[in-house]
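[Backbone geometry]
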Amino acid sequence: MASFKPVFWISIRSMIATMFPRYRKSDAKTKRRLLLYILLFAYVLISVVGGEAAMFYGLAKSLGAAGYGWLYFAVVGFAVLGLCVVGGLFLTHAQLFAAKDNELLLSLPIKPGVVLLSRIASLLVLDYIFTLIVAGPAAVIWIAVNSISGVGAVFLLLSVILLPLPAMGLSMLIAWILSAIFSRLRRSNLIKLGFYLLFFVAYLYLVTNLNGYITALVSRGAEIAEAFRRTVFPLYHLGAAITQGDGVSFFIFLVCALAPFVIMTVILSSQFLKIATTNRGVRKIEYRQKRLRASGARMAFVKKELRLFFSLPVYILNGGLGGVFSVVLSVLLAVRRDLIYEMFGQTQGALPFDVPTIAALMLCLFSALSLVSAASVSIEGNTLWIARSLPVSTYDILLAKVASHSLACGVPTLIGAIICAVALGPDLIGLLALFITPIALVVTMGFAGVAINLRFPRLDWVNPVQPVKQGASILIAMLAGAALIIAPGMLYVFLLNRIMDVGFMIFLTGVVYIGISILLAMSLKDKGARLFEELGG
């Protein structure tokens, strides 16, 4: 096992490189950027922990007074398991079943079991971080609101250590099943995208209905407690061990926590060499003679960009999620117009704007979330030289990136606008606001994303997650999209609301977006082309 430690640290560094940006330089600019990331991460962490503390305080106070303290820790355990599984499932799949360095590590004098255990250990580090984020505030709040015995405190500490293990076992099982499915399908990327969207929608549904669940938990404590006791008895014994100091309950929870982790580790240890080296056959593509169609250089680059975008599910989710939301919102509004009133907690007539205006505003908001072009330069990675070596105008290459962004995000936005126009029946100004402004903002975000990414490229990535989810260009593009929404909104609220209808203001903002796009296009032709030609030396 002497080789376990170096392989473990390799796995940890690989996981950190996938999740966080890397900085090799130590100049002042890099230090400022690193400080910005640290402050942003600290802000997000404090916000999350603060929200959890407020939620757990209400639960601890009500469930403790009602005598259902065990249910409090059962809910905490359920939250920890859910976060660990959902948060680390696809990383587990990537690390254990789809790692690109499997064959390299297995060619070294290292036992396959050591490689597997080191990767499981590195994934457990992430699960322990998730556990502390949830269980830490929950434990502090319970101790502050209610009392806990010395034995209960010991069981609480041991439970925090044990909770990631069953989550890891479940993650390994699901990841193994997904690996078997993905490896046998030609369109595995579509299946992956479906799973990503399924988990994301489930997460959004849970977050939006969280207050309702908490209210039901408090008001129907006895009924829910009995349901927990019958269906998820390990969590019941977890809570009983902590609140009652019951050693038998803790032993039952210990067995239930260790069993799935040990079983899956033993199974994968015996199968890991086969899993890592077997190239499962996929359906062979039968060649069929087709007529070739010639296209211009710019269109060829647009097709190349679109193929790259649709081949990476993580790129679609992080860059094109605004378009998905546009279609989903439009369909929901067409089916249930009263959804707007429920979202804002108002009745019909109490909102300051009519439904078509709100639909236009929300389509603009989703257009600002279009971040495809913000990673379009970085995603080239070590293949950037190919585009630069071709006898093609640099401006055409950059325009192709903007065009692919506009198509990938603009077409769903256009579909959403058409659905809203048919279902809601806006007037002429509302119709112009519904169509022109969101689509103009998509194009503006396309130009802005390319311009920003040229100034903050990240070409040294080892996983496409890095340029798509990390880096300064993504963060700055998000802030730019927010500014393009907030600035005209503030201008209207404080200066123009008395002299201009909101629908006309939205339409006028779309005209401004068109002007910004023209200016950015002129900048790309000169400064942008020069920056692109300087990339990579």
